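WP5 quarterly update. Target: tRNA threonylcarbamoyladenosine biosynthesis protein TsaE. Source organism: Philodulcilactobacillus myokoensis. Length: 155 aa.
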Amino acid sequence: MKLEVNNSKETIGIGKSIAKYLKPGDVIVLDGDLGAGKTTFTKGIAKGLGIKRYVVSPTFTIIKEYKDGRIPLYHMDAYRLDDGSGADLGLDEYFDGDGVSVVEWSRYVKSELPAQHLQIIFKRDDLKGENYRTLEFNPVGDHFKKMISESLNQK
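Structure tokens (predicted):
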């Protein structure tokens, strides 16, 4: 399934819609170019989970934890793990833990990802507008297929 968005408010809104269906142990992977909207989408998930803290990209810290919502949010940026060092971080403990894991730049930790997850690919098209994006949803597993069907059909 693909959705087109024209601004960050719409991107945040989609994240909020999906957050209603998230449960502990869910893993969402976000892929796309720099500035494509991955962190903006994660801000929507955080809002949907009731997290009050300001969400920023964890590029230099690699993992940011937000525990003040309905369930914890573990926001990861694997961009700096292009050497395959993701296994050293114990990502499986996050993936199997008490919260939702959102992983930006998942290709750098592909071998660490659980079999069932939701992948969202963000594509920019500056010819259609500075803030225009296409979000492509690739759910792997029945839980995520149902989540996308229900959450996006409410929009």
